[in-house]
Amino acid sequence: MGSGIAPPSHPGNQDEHGPGHDESGQTSLDDYADETGPTNRQGKTINERRERLEQILEEEMVIVESHQFGSFTRGTMVGPLSEDSDTDVMFVLSREKHGQWERGENGSSNCLRAVKRVLEKRYPNSNVSIDRNVVSVQFSDFTVDVAPAFKDDTGGYKIPDTYSDGQSWVRTNPRGYKQRFEAIDNARGGKLQKVARVAKKLRENRNIPVSSYHMEVMAYDYVHNHPNKDATTEELTEGFVEELPRRVSRGTRDPVNGDRLDSNMDQANRKEAIRKAKAARKKMREARTRRRDGDSREANEKYGDALGEDID
């Protein structure tokens, strides 16, 4: 990935293509969003690692389905990947073989501990830990979050929830959200993916204390409800950052099941997130003014200031 938002490729053609556009119609924020994803090689590694984890778990468990899900499959994962980056895999267990975990006391915790034991044996030099719904395996290049699951009667899945004294399973439907996300992204010409990745880079660069998924869903909701179906990436990004302090303040619900995504955010983190969102908004307003004035180079610098990237 580049170190920042590149200046316009053809500044002499601004009257023909608009501020910051090249001859293909791409803008500097479009290019920036394109550069934020993982590389093709990293994508291949993610798929290979899922397959390897499935092989390991199948030595001691009966798995009826496996799925790569999360930001990687929606095209909203940001790079470059590091040990702090995570990708999500789900392994659906046989109810006939492992149903005691679904029905029994402390079953969700027992299930996660069993998965953890299997993975620890094969990865003794990696940090393997339980984190609410998943078993996290921290490799040197990125972390894989392994979610054991059972099929749900509604067509979705149930995954462990250790926040409820280790006795519950919670419903999830990653396919449902992915289908909704893709429908909006296709209707907006791929701009939802771009805005979501830029929003996640803002979160990462400015260390805004909200989860990556929370930030993505805020971007999803904003683009979904934007009245102008032909809005540019710049306009959508500027508008999203303009609304970000208010969105953090009022809370966000999961688009599929309606659960609050910020229910575990304490008051101190919420105030800090709002403060940092307001700081980004101030810089983004300056970028918007420069863009409207036709000064694309200065607008790019202000975009960089807002998003926390160095400018070449």
From TrEMBL:
Basic residues bias locations: 276-291
Gene3D superfamilies: Beta Polymerase, domain 2
Coiled-coil stretches: none
Record SUPFAM superfamilies: Nucleotidyltransferase
Region (Disordered): 1-48, 247-312
Lineage top rank: taxon: Archaea
Family annotation (Pfam families): SMODS
Biased composition (Basic and acidic residues): 13-24, 247-275, 292-304
GO molecular function, one term: nucleotidyltransferase activity
Protein name: Nucleotidyltransferase domain-containing protein
Organism per entry: Halohasta litchfieldiae
